[in-house]
Amino acid sequence: MTAVLEVQDVTLRFGGLTAIDGVSFQVAQGQILAVIGPNGAGKTSLFNTITGIYPPTHGRVLIGGREIARSLTRRTVWGWIAAGVGTGVVASLGVNLADLWTHGINDLFAPPRPFPWFQALAAVFQGLAPTVWTATPFLLGTVAGIAGAASLWHSSRRGPDLVARAGVGRTFQNIRLFRSASCLDNVLVGMHPRLTSRWIDALFRLRRHRVDTAEGTAKARELLALVGLEDQAHRPAGELPYGHQRRLEIARALALDPTLLLLDEPAAGMNPTEGRELTALIRRIRDRGTTCLLIEHDMAVVMEVSDRIVVLHYGRRIAEGTPAEIRADPRVIEAYLGRDGIPSRVQTATVAPGVRHG
């Protein structure tokens, strides 16, 4: 089967803290894979690394067989150089700040004399003259400017926007909806990376914008129907019950039309009935052609819906296999499941709305 996602020896460090330690696994097309483990095991950090929020300290994340990243182009390099030269010019002028102030500010506000343009320009060129007092800060400033521009570019090289455009959608531990906007508008927001119209089309209501609006609204209503919220389209998202807000967030993620959907504790705070409904929803999503990767503490949901399970403990993968294999694995029982192999709902750490954990 084709691998939609490949995590290859990924390590993520925050200073001296290792959140993920050499984790590797694959998610095949059409598969539902669950990531489980105790609080603080590194599950959400793994999701954040996959979606480009954190760049991995080591290792690679491949989506559809390729690494998603901005390429280094000639335009980028020239941008670094321009930023560096600009920083160098500012640094070299700084050593002659007193002269510039005298010619540029004092003379400007000293009536009735006119502004001495010639003297001011002369002072600027003098500040740029290649002497030891100006060349040194110019060179140092240029190096610092190029290094700073390169660092900023590198930090955004694999951003969430690129990962989203590559077809990866996600939900979050804590619900992140636009609470005052309607359910329909929340779903429409998720379609933004797929829209073809631009601000100029919206400003003048051109045909491309009208087509995007009509098609987007129809698709949003279809997704609301998929998650059982078709009758709540115009209701503010903040007024929905907690379980329905979870469903709405899933609909918004699906609006991206993703090939891979990451669900971060979708059953958190749900009662057993809502958990069963969520299991059926995840299966419907998979049947529509979307591969699913989920973090979940509710073992009833995990064991029922997952094709395979990856277990993390202190940032390391300690087991991977089918639900039956994971249930019987002594390392998993010791680290997470408990001696009976199937934890109670208290042991699964299903949390109340708004409670965040690892």
Task: Give an overview of the whole structure.
The protein is of the alpha/beta class. It folds into three domains: 1-70 and 160-167 and 258-358, P-loop containing nucleotide triphosphate hydrolases (Rossmann fold, 3-Layer(aba) Sandwich), CATH 3.40.50.300; 74-155, no CATH class; 175-257, P-loop containing nucleotide triphosphate hydrolases (Rossmann fold, 3-Layer(aba) Sandwich), CATH 3.40.50.300. It contains 14 helices and ten strands. The strands form two sheets. The chain has a six-stranded mixed β-sheet, with helices on both faces. A four-stranded antiparallel β-sheet has the order 2-1-4-5, with helices on one face. Strand 7, helix 11 (272-287) and strand 8 form a beta-alpha-beta unit. The protein is globular. The two termini are 31 Å apart. Mean pLDDT is 84; it is low at 344-357.
CATH class of the largest domain: Alpha Beta
Write down the CATH topology of the largest domain.
Rossmann fold
Question: What name goes with the CATH superfamily of the largest domain?
Answer: P-loop containing nucleotide triphosphate hydrolases
- Overall number of domains: 3
The average pLDDT score comes to 84
The quaternary structure here is: single chain
Q: Radius of gyration over alpha carbons?
A: 27 Å
Class by alpha and beta content: alpha/beta
Report the principal-axis shape: globular
How would a crystallographer describe the biggest sheet? 6 strands, mixed
Low-confidence stretches: 344-357
Number of strands: 10
Helix content: 40-55%
Distance between the termini: 31 Å
Strand content: 15-25%
Strand line-up in the sheet with most strands = 6-7-8-3-9-10
Topology as a string of helices (H) and strands (E) = EEEHEEHHHHHEHHHHEHEHEEHH
Number of helices: 14
